[in-house]
Design a protein that fits this description.
The protein has helices at about 1-15, 30-60, 65-85, 95-100, 105-130, 135-160, 165-180, 185-195, 195-200, 205-230, 240-250, and strands at about 90, 105, 160, 235. With about 260 residues, it is mainly alpha-helical. A two-stranded antiparallel sheet has the order 1-4. Strands 2-3 form a two-stranded antiparallel sheet.
Length: about 260
């Protein structure tokens, strides 16, 4: 939560204010093409530091290094964020604020939702026919698709699908592919299942952990931008409580601490 805050406020504080009605740009700040990458770089840097410290502690025998290091960040990074943004808030640039307000129009959203649902069901049926999954395994997934389809269609026919929901859905889809269909994903699940067996099987544990935290750096930045768009300002409220909800989601999902 704190890193998402840092990434968002760096972008908001650095971005140049440009009056679109005038040919003269404001002299304060920097271009968004520079400010946003700086926020992204800050999130990636913190994630890489986390990964490096965690892998070094793991080699020393700390089995809960990930939890300890990120908990320390939970205590330390809010103070850093307050140093960066001592004031109550900083306004978000207009085009980021529009991300929190705009939506995909119904004429486009509704066919896309139906197409996505049909593609998901087709993929599940195909996996059963190929023998990769049993019928009992795909039934809950089909029910989930049906349960999501109804509210999404109601939403799309009323005001359209919010752009923030589209970004979140696309991110989930990309991460699903990365974790389920890549070498990194297989190695990550193997390490989570049994770290010793993974090392004996030739998995590079340190590299996999660092890659995982590199992906988390992207998640930090994306979360900060979405919070920034939702609140239309960089505020200390950004990311507050996010870490506790993340831990709860992981624990409910069955992940061992």
């Amino acid at each position: 939560g704190a890193v998402a805050f840092i990434a968002s406020i760096l972008g908001a504080l650095l971005i140049e204010r440009v009056d679109i009605t005038s040919s003269v740009a404001a002299t304060e700040g920097v271009s968004p093409f520079v400010a946003l990458p700086i926020g992204f770089a800050a999130a990636i840097l913190i994630a890489l530091i986390n990964g490096e410290v965690i892998t070094r502690l793991s080699r020393s025998g700390f089995k809960t290094a990930s939890f300890i290091v990120t908990l320390a960040g939970f205590l330390a990074y809010p103070a850093l964020a307050i140093l960066v943004l001592p004031n109550a808030a900083a306004p978000a640039p207009p085009y980021i604020g529009s991300l929190g307000r705009d939506a995909v129009p119904p004429i486009v959203a509704t066919p896309l939702i139906l197409l996505a649902a049909a593609a998901g069901i087709f993929s599940l049926v195909r996996s059963v026919r190929s023998g990769r999954r049993s019928r009992g395994a795909v039934v809950p997934a089909i029910f989930v698709i049906g349960a999501l389809l109804i509210p999404l269609l109601l939403l799309s026919t009323s005001r359209g699908i919010p752009l923030m929901l589209v970004v979140c859905g696309a991110t989930v889809g990309v991460l699903e592919v990365v974790t389920q269909m890549s070498v990194f994903g297989r190695h990550a699940y193997a390490i989570g299942g049994n770290r010793l067996d993974s090392r004996l099987a030739g998995v590079n544990i340190a590299r996999t952990i660092k890659t995982g935290f590199l992906i988390m750096g992207f998640a930090y930045f994306l979360g900060g931008v979405l919070y920034l768009a939702r609140l239309d300002a960089a505020s200390p409220l950004i990311g507050r409580g996010l870490e506790l909800r993340s831990i709860a989601a992981a624990a409910i999902g069955g992940v061992s601490l």
